């Protein structure tokens, strides 16, 4: 049964990509300047991999839907500095608690991992160099908030 689920998930990841509304090129280019207001923080959540391409992963920030990530996409938002909770749903619900600082960019790498029935979400905070490189490989999703 597990082998069948794994094979199905692999096939789905190779068949095609899920789609979500993408931001316009100008908004994408502006976000990739990584300029943050001195009194705010920016959070970037990106998926720069093809594995799980057919899977949309909903992302929630502090109880509000931010959007759904797909392969080679990213979401970003400006937040008030302080504690925040980011949740991503798949076969599991991955929760990440972090505290942002004014003027800071926070980069979160989201991965789709193989699950039993569907894809599982994994998230981790990465350093600025890795995060910027990952975001530059992706296209910005139109925020849903």
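^ Assign residues to that structure.
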């Amino acid at each position: 049964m597990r082998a069948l689920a794994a094979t199905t998930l692999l096939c789905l990841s190779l068949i095609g990509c899920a789609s979500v509304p993408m931001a316009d090129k100008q908004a994408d280019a502006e976000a990739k300047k990584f300029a943050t207001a001195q009194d705010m923080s920016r959070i970037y959540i990106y998926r720069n991999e093809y594995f799980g391409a057919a899977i949309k992963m909903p992302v929630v920030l502090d109880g509000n839907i931010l959007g759904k990530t797909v392969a080679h996409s990213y979401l970003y938002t400006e937040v008030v500095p302080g504690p925040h909770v980011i949740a991503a749903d798949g076969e599991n619900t991955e929760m990440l608690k972090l505290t942002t600082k004014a003027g800071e960019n926070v980069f979160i790498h989201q991965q789709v991992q193989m699950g039993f029935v569907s894809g599982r979400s994994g998230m981790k905070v990465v350093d600025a160099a890795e995060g910027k490189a990952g975001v530059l490989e992706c296209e910005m999703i139109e925020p849903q908030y």
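The first strand starts at residue 41 and ends at 47.
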